[in-house]
Specification:
alpha+beta; Nuclear Transport Factor 2, Chain: A; 6 strands
Length: about 130
């Protein structure tokens, strides 16, 4: 199932990139999304409503936010997504090009939890796969 999870997560991130909306087909209704502690939006968003609001805030803060996957790692019941967030802050010329790594916990083909990390190394350490 884990290879299918990786494929499905890739498709989900591509959907979000294209539509700026959450892929509710992948997210469990009770999903918990834990944002990075070093960012202004730090905290835990719960459920489809919380995920929708978070993505709305992200895409609303930028004129042209893009999410580009650099790597997907199959970690059993987890999928690690190494990506870059890039865009121009809405109403300014300030560009953001930020690496980020997400760890998605999967159960029965649904994401039950997402944790954001600043680096791939932090994410790997968090799931016991430190390089």
């Amino acid at each position: 199932m884990s290879r299918e999870n990786v494929k499905r997560v890739r498709e989900s991130y591509e959907f979000v990139e294209r539509t700026h909306e959450p892929d509710f087909e992948l997210l469990h209704p009770d999903v918990e999304w834990h944002t990075r502690a070093d960012l202004p939006d730090t905290g835990t968003r719960r459920g489809h409503d919380g995920a929708g609001k978070l993505l709305s805030e992200w895409f609303g803060a930028f004129d042209d936010l893009s999410l580009k996957i650099d790597e997907l790692i199959d970690a059993g019941d987890r999928v690690i997504v190494v990506l870059r967030l890039h865009g121009c802050v809405r109403g300014s010329i300030q560009e953001v090009d930020m690496p980020e790594t997400h760890v998605l916990t999967m159960r029965d083909g649904k994401t039950t939890e997402i944790h954001e990390y600043q680096t791939k190394a932090e994410a790997l350490k968090a799931v016991g796969l430190a390089e």
